[in-house]
Structure formats: structure tokens, C-alpha cells
Amino acid sequence: MSREILDARRLLCPLPVIRTQDKVKKMLPGQQLEVVCTDPGVMQDIPAWCRINGHQVLETITNEGEYIVVLQVGE
Fold it and tell me: How many domains is the chain partitioned into structurally?
């Protein structure tokens, strides 16, 4: 399974979600995207966006000021 990484560090809401949306549009269903951010709001914003748009959150990680959301692109 291929996993791409999106570096959204130093971006504030709503930019991490917008960049995630733009990246997902270029991906195929089943692919995974790891979004790395420094804005803690993404821990709620990206999962909410995924629920609305049919994508699945596989994992969320908080690590030394970085917030990582791993999602799988839906149909």
C-alpha cells in the first residue's frame, strides 16, 4: 500500500485541511496520506473533514509538538 506524506507544518487553520483536500484529489481510492502538522486543531478538523468526504482516519499521533493524521482515501 502506498503512503504519501504531506508536510503542513507551520500552517494554521484552515490551510492544513485545504492542503489535505488538494492532495487527496490527486490520489486514488485506497491510498494513504500522512499529514504532518504543528497546529493542534487538525486533530479535530481533518477527522471531521474525512467523515464528511468519505475518507477513513487510520491513526492520529501527537509527538513533540507535531500532530500527525494518517488517512485512507475513500471512493
Answer: 1
